[in-house]
Every structure is written in C-alpha cells, then in structure tokens.
Amino acid sequence: QVQLVESGGGLVQPGGSLRLSCTTSRFTLDYYGIGWVRQAPGKEREGVSCISSTDGSTHYADSVKGRFTISRDNAKGTVYLQMNSLKPEDTAVYYCATDRSRICVPEYDYYGQGTQVTVSS
C-alpha cells in the first residue's frame, strides 16, 4: 500500500509563489518515481512534473518549465514542488502520484488526496 499526502496549497496572487509537499515513506522515495499532476475544473488531468528514483532526473510540462521546480528529500520522505511566478491558469487541485516505477511515467496508479491551489487577485 502506497500512501501519499499532499500539503501546502492555498490562495496566492498572480506572480506569487507556493511550495507543495508530498509526504510518503522513505521506501517509496528510494524505489519509486514521484509525479505531480493537476486537474482544473472542467479539464482533464495534466502531468506537471516528475522525479525519478534512479538518478533524480526531472521532467516538466512545457506550461511550467522555468517556473516550477521538483525536488526530493529521501530522509524526510518528502517530495516538493516549488511554484514561482504563478498564473491564474495554474489554479487546480494538485496531486502527487506514483505507479511504483523507478522512472517517470505518463500515467499513475496511486494518488494522494490532493491540495487546492488558487491563483487569483
């Protein structure tokens, strides 16, 4: 059983920053890649970023490149998503996810409960 718990969402003005956290077990981070996925109202789920468990390689959606940074602290069992220069179109529920693969993948089997991010003035 994989458990993923997101936190750090909230309301922020355009241009602001937030840092999301995904807390899980150290075992999960040592062996599985972790992704961040978001879903806005009325839209399909979108992969935002992911980090592999092998070499820590990272991937980003074009819409967030240069603004978001994913990182992990295996000792703390936590994956972070630092979000800068936020835009209203970043408003969504953000989920961390894994499919128990070591590498980044386009689809996931396990999701956390999600955390709401709202970018609005």
Give the key terms.
mainly beta, four-stranded antiparallel sheet, single chain, 11 strands, 1 helix, 121 residues
Individual helix count: 1
- According to DSSP, the number of beta strands is 11
Based on CA atoms alone, the radius of gyration comes out at 13 Å
Q: Stretches where pLDDT falls below 50 for ≥5 residues? A: none
Q: Span from first to last CA?
A: 40 Å
Characterise the protein shown here:
5% of the residues lie in helices and 44% in strands. It is globular. By secondary structure, it is mainly beta. Strands 2, 4, 5, 6, 9, 10 and 11 form a seven-stranded mixed sheet that branches. Strand 5 and strand 6 form a beta hairpin. It has one helix and eleven strands. The longest helix has 6 residues, at 26-31.
